[in-house]
Amino acid sequence: MLARPWKAIECPGGIAGAAAALAAEVDGLAADSDGLAAIVVGHPRRLSGEPNEQTAAVESLAARLRQTTGLPVVLQDERLSSREAETRLALREKDWRKRRPMLDAAAAAVILQDYLDSQPRPSRAADEDESL
Known about the structure:
By secondary structure, this protein is mainly alpha-helical.
């Protein structure tokens, strides 16, 4: 499974406003035919792994999302995700002014891909059994 940038969601009103805006998006996605199994949230840390000034706010947001949506919320390490996203975007778009609006969504895709890559893959035998 491959992650790709989708969109950036404006989340005004602090943690409560962000949780409400994200919960509304989650409700829409959960109603989709593909459904939704979990929410992956970037977990900000310093390069050393220590918490930074945003860590507590993101953890509080994750807790609110768990309560309001009833879905599992996974905190995924987001260190260097913006740098990776910028590098990937630069391959397609040379003008940094055009890349800037796409950076947050691209970084979110990097974080999601890191999460997906960390999950165990089903065995090939299980895939073949499902196709029968």
